[in-house]
Amino acid sequence: MGALTSIIILTRNGLKHTRACVESVQKYTSLPYEFIFVDNGSTDGTLAYLSTVRNATVLANSVNKGFAGGCNQGIRAAKGDYLLLLNNDVVVTENWLEGLRGWLGWDRTIGIVGPVSCNVAPIQRIQPDPYQTMDEMQRFARKWREQNIGIGFYPHRLIGFCMLFHKKLIETIGGFDERFYPGGYEDDDFCLRARLSGKILWAACDVYVHHHGHATFTANGLAWNEQGLYNAEIFRNKWNLEVSAVELEKTGYNPSLIVEKVKTFCPEKHFVHLGEEEGLT
Fold first, then answer.
1. Is 22 exposed, middle or buried (0-12, 13-18, 19+ CB in 10 A)?
2. Can you give the three-state secondary structure of the chain, one letter per residue?
3. Burial degree of 197 (CB within 10 A; 0-12, 13-18, 19+)
4. By C-alpha distance, which of 115, 95, 125 is closest to 31?
């Protein structure tokens, strides 16, 4: 049967996307898994729906604890040897989990693996054949996997819309920094700490999933650009970057330069306790 994967999905409204995500996981996942849902105060019937999903743990927050806080809750509740963070606006595809898990088994120095997709930052973005329906998307994903089987690369960072890692990574580097509220840069920070601990990142070119992109922010009327600037300032201060938050948002940064500068993982500075705000001092 293989080891259990805990699929951690955060929700805050956006029921239509959540339902499509869950149904795709149920249809296209053959390896053992459990759902861990963390709801950040939905008011659109999401909680009622989640209560009907089999093989699921539902954690309901009365207030929005943000992406990092919700992920930490989910990680604490997870029973799996593998943890997979999955945005609720993702639709997975045939052999997606087998593909991602296969890469972690192929090279034990890989700490985190993610797929390629649409509507994601350039590092993991591809230009898929045009599709109008999810059935057409599934056909594209199947063809894409056949054409790219066994292909991947080392990225500077991975995007948190779909991230797989071994639970032991949490024991080494901790969870997500909850200062990045409600979302943005917590995945950058997590990847940096993984790399500093001696792990590498891997983008699996042979796994394609569909990503609607920023659906939770849109569903809740949040301004992504304003929030990005706020969290960019926190990220800039935490890692002592010599650029302004505006520049960071506009032109980005090179994570490898930070890794070269900091060099090694220092538990006293870099370990983030689950549910606590720990970081560089």
1. buried
2. CCCCEEEEEEECCCHHHHHHHHHHHHHHCCCCEEEEEEECCCCCCHHHHHCCCCCEEEEECCCCCHHHHHHHHHHHHCCCCEEEEECCCEECCCCHHHHHHHHHHHCCCEEEEEEEECCCCHHHECCCCCCCCHHHHHHHHHHHHHHHCCCEECCCCCCCCEEEEEHHHHHHHECCCCCCCCCCCHHHHHHHHHHHCCCEEEEEEEEEEEECCCHHHHHCCCCHHHHHHHHHHHHHHHCCCCCCHHHHHHHCCCHHHHHHHHCCCCHHHHCECCCCCCCCC
3. middle
4. 95
Distance CA 137, CA 152 (A): 21
Q: In angstroms, what CA-CA distances link 18 with 28, 81, 195? A: 15, 24, 31
Tell me: the pLDDT tens digits for 249-261?
999 999 999 999 9
User: 60-91, pLDDT tens digit by residue?
Assistant: 999 999 999 999 999 999 999 999 999 999 99
Which residues of the chain fall below pLDDT 70?
1, 214-225, 275-281
- CB–CB of 53/36 below 8 Å? no
Integer Cα distance of 129 and 206 in angstroms: 15
Q: Give the pLDDT confidence score for residue 226 in this predicted structure.
A: 73
So what's the pLDDT on residue 78?
Answer: 98
Superfamily of domain 5-270, CATH level 4:
Spore Coat Polysaccharide Biosynthesis Protein SpsA; Chain A (3.90.550.10)
Query: In terms of C-beta density within 10 A (0-12 exposed, 13-18 middle, 19 or more buried), how is residue 105 classed?
Result: exposed
Residues in the chain: 281
Domain boundaries in the chain? Answer: 5-270
